[in-house]
Design brief:
globular; 28% strand; 26% helix; 2 domains; Transcription Regulator spoIIAA; seven-stranded mixed β-sheet; alpha/beta; 306 residues; Rossmann fold
């Protein structure tokens, strides 16, 4: 546990939500199935495989040694159990539970299974959107809790279109905008199957910034290996000339070469500008296994408004 202690002691809890320890990157032997997150005022541990009760107790003790002044809630999620149950080891969570990141407020639900409302590995992606939003019409595909929309509006976007199939996710997205005092006259929320909604999306275009952040394997909704190309083929119908596009993929089975191949074949008018690096704490021994985020620019002709 000395290794874990030394890593945790290098990171202050602070006000912003963050990952404190990322064992899933396989950079730390014996901790490959452990992650530790900070959602003020709570520390949230995720175990991806079963560990002994002794290991769990040592883990909790190490966190206590690293943060002796921390007296807030402690939670353990056991991802290896069906339904990914969460145990509240001590304390009580605030209701609603509002957390901070880069000056914005997000509502999280740490007791609600795998998706708690804020994906911490995408922090740099949200910052990228904020930096590429001023005065722009922004399209946020697979918007989930609309964190990219918050970032875009904070960056001065003219308008944002959010689209997702989940009513609950979009409801949370609206709450997030309200909590940040963002007027909704410039933000729209559509609960639709993207693949059946191109006409609606084109009516509100063209877009100067597009975020493509789909689930990697959600049966009945989106399977990256076969569906990503269906998104990319639509870029010319949605994008303005010189539009900036954030292309994201979070699948350990599909690496950077998958995005390169898909973009080259199905979006040849897009030029790779840069890879958006993940926060340093999310280091991976094999970078193809973690979140992959790329900045492309559309060099084709302007989409026609339907």
């Amino acid at each position: 546990m000395q290794l874990l202690l030394s890593i945790l002691q290098q990171t202050e809890l602070g006000s912003d939500s963050k990952r404190l320890f990322h064992g899933r990157g396989k950079c730390y032997p014996n901790f490959e199935q452990v992650t530790i997150d900070w959602f003020s005022p709570a520390i949230f541990i995720t175990l991806f495989s079963e560990h002994s009760s002794e290991f769990e107790q040592e883990l909790l003790a190490t966190i206590g040694h690293a943060y002796p002044d921390f007296v807030g809630p402690l939670l353990i999620q056991r991802r290896y159990i069906h339904g990914a149950p969460v145990e509240l080891v001590r304390g009580e969570l605030p209701q609603p539970h509002l957390v901070q990141e880069q000056g914005l407020t997000y509502q999280v639900k740490l007791l609600d299974g795998q998706n708690n409302g804020l994906f911490l590995d995408m922090a740099n992606g949200r910052q990228w959107v904020r930096e590429h939003a001023s005065g722009r019409n922004v399209l946020n595909l697979f918007s989930y809790s609309c964190s990219f929309s918050l970032a875009a509006m904070a960056g001065g976007a003219e308008s944002v279109i959010n689209i997702d199939m989940s009513h609950g996710a979009l409801k949370l997205g609206k709450i997030n905008h309200k909590n940040n005092e963002i007027a909704l006259d410039k933000v729209k929320f559509f609960r639709h199957d993207i693949f059946k909604s191109w006409g609606k999306l084109k009516r509100y275009g063209p877009y100067q910034t597009i975020v493509i952040d789909p689930p990697s394997n959600q049966v009945g909704s989106f399977v990256a290996a076969k569906d990503y190309q269906r998104l990319l083929r639509k870029i010319p119908e949605l994008a303005s000339e010189q539009a900036d596009i954030l292309v994201c993929l979070n699948s350990p089975e599909l690496g950077k070469d998958f995005i390169e191949q898909q973009m080259g074949e199905y979006a040849p008018d897009c030029q790779l500008i840069a890879q958006v690096r993940n926060p340093e704490v999310f280091a991976e021994i094999d970078s193809n296994k973690g979140l992959k985020v790329f900045h492309y620019r559309y060099l084709g002709t302007k989409a026609c408004q339907a």
